[in-house]
Amino acid sequence: MTQQRARTQPGRAEDGLGPNSDIGSRLRALYGAVQEEGVPDQLLDLLEKLDNAEKAQQTGTTQRDGE
Amino acid sequence: MSAEGTSFKREMLATLPSLRAFAVSLTGKHDKADDLVQDTVMKAWAKQSSFQMGTNIKAWLFTILRNEFYSQMRKRGREVQDSDGVFTERLSVHPSQYGSLDLEDFKKALSQLPDDQREAIILIGASGFSYEEAAAICDCAVGTMKSRVSRARSRLSELLQISGEADYGPDAVSAQVTSGNHSF
């Protein structure tokens, strides 16, 4: 797990984009700001629908909500 | 009981914030980015049988999103991107460690990069991919990815007149940049 973390740590020093790099930290500030906005409800709803449709199919339930 | 679909969904959910940030960086607009992420989620769901659980779902989703973006661009005859480019819209969460002016300049500089360099530096510097993963996402060689990131970094340093090499101190790249002639 620690290994996985280190591997996927954004902007490792070798890129010149590490924690003390101006460019790296500005990039992550912008990117992070969008990430922190959270996921819009429409997307969460879509995933929910896809998942439910699949479960219904797997259990052999006929899909009747489209009527 | 726990259906495979459910854990696929959970893994997708965990990736969505980062996927969406990447989409914003590609499209420059939040509404377009959300449409793109939505298309990506549907595509990914349809081809989930081709995804092996336990492998890198984040890289897989980024690849689908990027392919979807460029295929839509081609279909639309590559409409001109909004002049301000990336991350143009008001951010609802303001990154507190920087003055807003500071980040505005940075956004402008980022938008002046060629598309391939911009996506490279974002994938490596912000999304947290390795060069190998980013190269696979962009369907290019690892060496190409490295040179795109390096050129992006030099260009940004040049535009912002800051050093991207603070981890190391000056090296060949930043020395070259700082001694170069700035066009403005």
Task: Describe the structure concisely for a colleague.
Chain A has 67 residues and is an all-alpha fold. Chain A is 58% helix and 0% strand. Chain B: Residues 15-78 form the RNA polymerase sigma-70 region domain.
- CATH names the topology of the largest domain in chain B as Arc Repressor Mutant, subunit A
Q: Per the principal axes of the C-alpha atoms, what is the gross shape of chain B?
A: globular
- Provide the number of structural domains of chain B: 2
CATH level-two architecture of the largest domain in chain B: Orthogonal Bundle
CATH class of the largest domain in chain B: Mainly Alpha
Low-confidence stretches of chain B: 163-184
Structural class of chain B: mainly alpha
In the predicted model, the low-confidence regions of chain A spanning at least 5 consecutive residues are 1-8
Q: Which outline of chain A best applies? A: elongated
The helical percent of chain B reads 55-70%
Mean pLDDT of chain B: 80
Q: Approximately how much beta-strand content do the residues of chain B carry?
A: under 5%
> Rg of chain A from C-alpha positions?
20 Å
Major sheet of chain A, described briefly?
none
